[in-house]
């Protein structure tokens, strides 16, 4: 299927590895020029080089910056030609806050989580949607978490911050932007084989006294698909949401979890 987005420009945050990298790879494979943002320059440059080699027809640019800071956002938004006006696609993604016990989190921990996982996506939406609307095409995909639908006890910082973003998106996605060709959707990953799952496995192991491998096998057994997802699978879903074929989908929370969530709604 031709997704109809070749030649467009995408900003992909947290793109050096994991789910963000999967999204950047999938978009580049569809002919989308990609600006990849991440904090670690060496890993970012290596990831970008691999994408450029696999998709030589597209432009792959990098910004080594912390997207959760005003300076990082300014650097990212200036790359493709002017503050936020040149991006047709934005994939919002920032590292999730650390797991733990809510009793140990102070105000600073909460503010940091909200800054990264709620306010940063909102700032990038604000910076790009008007340009998208003027051009009659825009796709914003926010990578959140399956915990928005089924909260995870040790991920309380993430539960709270991402749920706030979900509420915001539910309103703005249904504003007049929807009639101007701009869609805003949330993509909710369940358990994917990334560094993030390794961190949560360690936290669960520390809490229960079980080994990480024991917990891994137990978790996979509870997923109807019988395994963790891959970043490439996740990226393919993201690319579809960014396509011309997803123009009638906005304000949605798209769950990708191998069937783990047991609810009907």
UniProtKB/TrEMBL annotation:
Record's keyword terms, sorted: Oxidoreductase
InterPro entries, per database record: NAD(P)-bd_dom_sf (IPR036291), SDR (IPR050259), SDR_fam (IPR002347)
Enzyme class: oxidoreductase
Keyword Oxidoreductase applies: yes
Presence of the UniProt keyword Transit peptide in the record: no
SUPFAM superfamilies: NAD(P)-binding Rossmann-fold domains
Domain of life the protein comes from: Bacteria
EC numbers, comma separated: 1.1.1.100
Coiled-coil regions listed in the entry: none
GO molecular function: 3-oxoacyl-[acyl-carrier-protein] reductase (NADPH) activity
Family the entry assigns: Belongs to the short-chain dehydrogenases/reductases (SDR) family.
PANTHER family named among the record's database cross-references: 3-OXOACYL-(ACYL-CARRIER-PROTEIN) REDUCTASE, NADPH-DEPENDENT REDUCTASE BACG
Official protein name in the record: 3-oxoacyl-[acyl-carrier protein] reductase
